[in-house]
Specification:
121 residues; mainly beta; SH3 type barrels; 6-stranded antiparallel sheet; 3-stranded antiparallel sheet; globular
Length: 121
């Protein structure tokens, strides 16, 4: 099983009721993907779905207390943002030959640009 979203991608969270602006209207939340769990089909988005954890000190120097961390979100609730056109988009795949190798790359369905994350190639 593979996902179309990878670590380092910029995504938009869809259908969120948690984040609202001053007038009470739902605002779009975007952020960078910090982690991807392929087995559970979840992603961790930077600055979204913050939960409080009570952390126990693990040594003399370690500080315990209440810490806010990001919790995972199901991958169906996020959509990839194209780096070229800047819009939330679906992804397709295309085979590209580089020298003697053929690799599969992600492609934006709206503008047709290749989507390359910073940790690829």
């Amino acid at each position: 099983m593979s996902l179309n979203i990878k670590k380092g991608d910029k995504v938009v969270v869809l259908g969120t009721r948690r984040q609202k602006d001053k007038n009470g209207n739902a605002k779009t939340v975007s952020g960078k993907v910090l982690a991807v769990n392929v087995e559970k089909e979840t992603v961790v988005v930077e600055g979204y779905n913050m939960v409080t954890k009570h952390r126990k000190p693990r040594g003399r120097e370690d500080q315990g207390g209440i810490v806010k961390v990001e919790a995972p979100v199901h991958v169906s609730n996020v959509m990839l943002v194209c780096p070229k056109c800047g819009e939330a988009t679906r992804t397709g795949h295309k085979l590209v030959t580089e020298g003697d190798k053929t690799i599969k790359v992600r492609v934006c369905k709206k503008c047709g640009a290749e989507i390359v994350t910073p940790n690829e190639r």
